[in-house]
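Annotated sample (chain length 504).
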Amino acid sequence: MSDIPQDADAVLRLAAQSMFDVLASTAQGAMVVNREHRVVWISEGYKRFLPALGFRDETEFVGRRVEELVPNTLMAQVIDTGQPILVDLLTNKAGTFLVSRLPLRSDSGEVIGAMGMVLLDHPETTMQPLMNKFACLQSELDETRRQLAAEQSRNRRPKHRIIDFIGSSAAALDVKRQARRVAQTDATVLLLGETGTGKELLAHAIHAASRRAGKPLVSVNIAAVPETLLEAEFFGVAPGAYTGAERKGRDGKFKLADGGTLFLDEIGDMPPALQAKLLRVLQEQELEPLGSNEVVKVDVRVIAATSRDLGAMVARGEFRADLFYRLHVLPIRLPALRERPDDIEALVEVLLEDIARRGGLAPKTLGPEALRALMAQRWPGNVRELRNALEQAFLMSDDGQLEPRHFGLGVPQDAPRPMAPEPMPSTLAPTLSMRPEEPGASLPMRKASLEREAIAQALRRTGGNRVAAARLLAISRATLYEKLGKYPELAVLDREAVPQVGSL
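Output written by the structure step:
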């Protein structure tokens, strides 16, 4: 009896040592890893696996981090979480093994390492039913991943080609020539032009004509993403980066676009704090996910677009000069619709066909007088506004041919072709023959009129500053963008929508 320890702690230590010896001797191989994930001991049985893992003896193995030694190991997870993994299948170049992993704790309960044991090697011969089920599940998982990757690739394919930029005017042909040229490079492209000139279409077309066409095209409208979420949206989130973050983390847009193209629309709306991080990605092709110290390499071609005067913003200190020069490598200016009126006829033909196809309706044509009337307009909203006017006239008329009256337009004696933006005539209200303020006007017409006037007043009071106007109206910046899309004629009041590209 005198040989039996009476101290409880001594008994526990003896029991732990005895259990450790039993586990190490009964397992086909065992290892111990410390808190820093480094291997500090391997059993005699484990040494027979070393040649298959690429090591001559234990001197090359012990002392190194387990992640570097054993592919697919989860020992580090056991140490970091303190949770055991009692039964698992481990497959690497040494074979397939049935393994168990246990955390090792100090007297105070702190995790000081982990013990891993090979319970069975070559389980495919001794555990055939289980292995068959495992193989079946693995095959299904691989197939699901393949289908998901294929679906994501399909969803991120370019929707337009250079030929889809409609027009045969000198200005349109010059844009298409520049697009074909820049598509052959990987340099950053900056698309400049008023709202509705086709910047997003051209970004898709450049990607489709590039060597990256088979890789993803990822688009981000910076103005539509809340400022607090932009960093996570761009660079991704590490696992557990903050309360509520996804357990497995989340890839950002740069990672999703790896190998392909990232289209950054409304780049002029990027907050100053994020501009420095974007500059680093453009220069170094590397990023750090939110909440991570790990540097991730990416291969991404960036196409940026803006309707704002970045040169003036740099002068006012609102946009980083170094980022501007990094973006302004291959600038392409998209002409306003009023600068290429000869293209309106071709645009109308294509747009009317698309409107009929999307709505499943019989096609309609445009009368020659209506064409002359449309060519006389200033179109501050450009092609987007032209489509809006055509769609309203198309859907609100039963006639097979659209005339000036369907657009609320008179017939001009001589269709002028102005080169400078002017306010949209109040008569351009497709299909609305009655003014909203008239007694018989409907409630929706009255509400739309009040909303439009409130936005116009806010833009006038703020000198066309969208951020200040949104604040004055007590709505978000993204909501104001949406409203401006409904009322393209207000673009003439919006200084940010009419870039002075000559200053660039």
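Annotation: The chain is about 40% helix and 15% strand.
Annotation: Residues 411-435, 498-504 have pLDDT under 50 and may be disordered.
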